[in-house]
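Could someone model zinc ion with this protein?
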Amino acid sequence: MCHPAATLETATFRGDDASCLVEASLACRVCLSGAIDWSLRVEHWDHEVVCRCRDCGDERVVSLTGDQALRLALAPPRR
Ligand SMILES: [Zn+2]
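Reply:
Sure, complex below.
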């Protein structure tokens, strides 16, 4: 699937934020559901998380900093 870079969001949580803030950052922007299937995508210089809403099926890609990717990899919020 391709996604234009212009629509790429940037995640807002910090590497040491509480889980609820991490979850809120991944939550669906369309229906505000927190039931998200997400998967981390780490490439050479890019870290992204692909979020798919279980309620409305909306899918989006959120760009992450290294800290944020590390946080999701080491201390993921509940899925
Ligand atoms: Zn949704």
